[in-house]
Amino acid sequence: MPDYLTREFLQKSDPKDQTLNTHSTIQILKVLQPRHFGSDLNKGKRFSVPFDLVGYTYWDYVDAWTKVFWHQNTRFKHSWLIYFKTNTIYNFPNWFLQWWDFFGPIPEIFPEIVQQGFAQFERQYNSQESRILADLKYFSSFALSWIFSWQYRYSKTEKTNQYPSLQRHTFVKWWTQFDSSKADQEQVKLWFQSHPKFLKAADPETSVFLNQKSHLAAFLAGSKSKEVLTKNLKEVLQMLQQEEEGSSSKKEETSSSSSEEEDPFYQNEDDCFGICLD
After folding, report:
1. Which of 13, 114, 116, 135 would be a feasible disulfide site paired with 110, CB 3.0-4.6 Å?
2. Sequence ranges of the domains in the chain
3. Under a CB-based contact definition with an 8 Å cutoff, are residues 172 and 105 in contact?
4. Residue 248 — very low, low, confident or very high, per pLDDT cuts 50/70/90?
5. Cα separations (Å) of 16 from 13, 20, 22, 57, 145?
């Protein structure tokens, strides 16, 4: 397996049969992006330890993320414990999102305390500004773990004259020995305090209201006489009127631009780049 895939790759054998590998543990240290590999993704890199293959390309590295988890013992009783490294910020390439969708955990296996923590994370996570899924960001940020396994099963068929096909069926479950309190609601709040760039932006209308309120409080606090108070109130009213006119004009611009976006003529605008009409 490529060195950058894991730091630990441990195997556990059956006590009754030492030749039977029943469990494997894998820790995700880093997921290489194309820019980390080099300018030529087809150029091979050498392994840090002697191996039958001379080296591996970036595409071999991507394939390893899938093929390694198809390892199975002769009794089909093998499982993987997969987990992330603590205090690590991961940058995931796009292909890893597909890997996560297939090999990653599902919310149905979360214990109650983790379900609450994940719900809190989803409420605060700025998913619109990030291509990384909320569950992947949650798991990698809190170094969570899960168990992955698979078995062969025959698929059902309604045709009597057709043999059922043999397919892989995957399973995931929670690792009960993990301390779930490390990912509860309180820890999620503390994480966002340390990583504010991932925090969802406040509601715009609420932000405007709080901004106006702070301005009004500042004006009134500086009013020491009736004349100054009257003057400040006039300035506040004038400021609110200007903001209202500005927001109205902004809405008109937004409506006009949105009407252009709805027009089919503008939907394929990117397809026209590079076309010369001369």
Report:
1. 114
2. 6-198, 204-256
3. yes
4. low
5. 9, 9, 11, 39, 27
Q: Tokens at residue 235, please?
A: 């300035």
Q: Is pLDDT above 60 for 145?
A: yes
Which tokens in the block code for residue 132? Answer: 């990384």
- Rounded Cα distance between 77 and 150, Å, is 9
Do the beta carbons of residue 25 and residue 81 sit within 8 Å? yes
Q: Residue 140 CA to chain centroid, in angstroms?
A: 8
Average pLDDT of the segment spanning 130-152: 93
Residue 33: Cβ within 10 Å count: 14
Distance from C-alpha of 28 to C-alpha of 82, rounded to nearest angstrom: 7
23 closest CA partner among 125, 109, 145, 195: 145
Structure tokens, 133:
């899924």
Distance CA 30, CA 263 (A): 44
